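fyi for ur records
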Amino acid sequence: MIDLKLLREEPDRVRQAVARKKFAVDFDAIFTADAKRRAAVAEAENARAGQKATNNDMAKLPKGSPEFQAKVAEMKQLSARVKELEAVAKTADEEWEKIFLTLPNLPHESVPDGRTEAENFAVSTWGDIAQVSPHALPHFDIPWFSQYVDFER
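which gave:
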């Protein structure tokens, strides 16, 4: 996964690296969703801070006083507003995560560019492929493997 700091501070570098992999990514949608998510989270946190401040003010008032009753009514309104804003922030976060996960990992600078899949090649390998058993299975075909790795997600 790409570091958000890198994406926000060096978007052109990320765009160029993704272009090298020949992926079509809607960067404008990613940045729009990120801005929307950040604004929604900030608004929800500000509302939560207001709710806590009102709660602290209410704790200093004598119970049953008119001021206390007014603060109780204010707390009810703030609580409803906080829940509403947190739901908006959660939805914005889910939308952002969904679109952010379409962004592929960046290739290393040393990876050569190939115009087609046939022009790409392995720079290094490990082990001798000729010595692999003919009955060997790929890791994702091992029956118990899906219990430990969730490929569907």
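The CA atoms of residues 29 and 99 lie 8 Å apart. thats all i got for now
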